[in-house]
From TrEMBL:
Pfam families membership: VWA, vWF_A, YfbK_C
Gene3D superfamilies given in the database record: von Willebrand factor, type A domain
Name the record gives this protein: VWA domain-containing protein
Protein origin, superkingdom: Bacteria
All copies of domain VWFA, residue ranges: 200-376
Amino acid sequence: MQPRGCCKSNTPSCDIKSLARPKRPCHKPGINKAQLWREDLGMLYKSLVSVAVCAIMVSGCSQTSQSDKQYAPSQTLDVQEPMASVLAPEGSEKYKPNEISPVRTVADTPVSTFAVDVDTGAYANVRRFLTRGQLPPRDAVRTEELVNYFRYDYPLPTDRSQPFSVTTDVAQTPWNSDTRLLRIGLRGYDLSYARRPAANLVFLIDVSGSMEDADKLPLVKTALSMLADNLQPQDKVGIVVYAGAAGVVLDPTSDPSEIKTALNQLSAGGSTAGGEGIELAYATARANFMKGGVNRIIIATDGDFNVGVTNQKQLEELITSNRDDGITLTTLGFGQGNFNDALMESMADLGNGNYAYIDSAMEAKKVLSEELSSTLFTIAKDVKIQVEFNPAYISQYRLIGYENRALAEQDFDNDKVDAGEIGAGHQVTALYEVVPAGSKGWSSERRYADNKRSAGGKQDGELAFVRLRYKLPDGDTSRLIERPVAATLLADAPAPRGDMAFVTAVAAFGQKLRGDTRLGDTNFADIRRLAGNPDGYWRQEFVKLTELAETKAPIKTAQLVD
């Protein structure tokens, strides 16, 4: 089988220009992923200025030799129903509005519920800004993704019937002597290279003109070539490209050399029609569906594409229906200037995949080689965490991060509410900052008797109760894990050290970049001292990033066009 010199396509596309999206308020509890997708796309692309009615497609194919063949998109078509473009205004990037989590009082809101998040895109994107001498936009910083970028010393699960272990511990808060930090850690079981199931992968690659920069399509080729080198004989990879037209440039194959040859022949040019490319990618995955295996679309783009032949609801239904049939979606973000982080995160979230931002060959190696099992192989889906605080021990709390993963309390027991996925070897960390009963809190006592609420509670030795719900990859009914958190952890809380010190430093770093006023006078030097002198490349790099934030970043702050 040889890579094709040009694509085949009978599919229309349309280039639609839009104004910058209006801001929407931060995520409200009780809204599931499908609702979020509708809300995100609707508000992201609502400010439609004009819709270009597309011309009849024109296609061409070079008659050069096999070694000189390159994909050159050249087709545009009509669109059935206009939809505002996701194309960012020139020189702008798009991020979801992301307000810092509020303080909750246990008397009023004793239960906190959220979906897990294993995405790491925000960390690599923050690194990209800092290495260029800029502070990242606040909405680009999702603290939970910074925290979950790193691995911690959580134990492996003892039994695969329960796909992850649960760890809880408590430490003193470095920036507030009146509060404590409660950590909840999950670790999924590891999956060896030899034991992982066969994979049916379709690379969906943006080859539009916006992808010509060195940190875009050239880096895409490097990244996906690394993944090809880690395939097993039973795995298959097909390649679909999209720009002015969508087409298959490589039918599914198990030969890494064919995959890399096809990748190397790609070139950027033309406008973008992402929707029709997604349709073709799903059709390719369906035609080669592996029962009992991993069936996944991996989309590589800067997110600067319009949705082409489909309207918003149709695109949502396309992703969710394929997800429900076992074809998931991972997004890999590339580049700068017109990068659409909001779309990348939303698509992966809706498609039960994960989102990573690739800013270097090192990051590509981490995501698509060293952590390939975590990236591709789901061991638990719709994972939700719920924490109920005992008012006898805790008076106030706040969850650090996970703002756009919040769920309503009643959503925890509702198996129809979609949540996050955990891959093989994945880890998830959540940090709560809590106020022990009797200590000074963030909010003062109310003046009028009728406005005061006594939390009450019984000192039964439990400061909190942790519940987790999850489904096995092929299951429809959730399973429940429950763990009490001993109150003795609160009374005996030590200063953070080791892993706890490092995770606290990363959380403080994210919150500092976001402008969290509850960090007090904590500065980047304090965060660096808390991180210590860690081992390993990635942790050492984090320490360097705190230096960049302290020295370079104040000189030049990234600006976005709203």
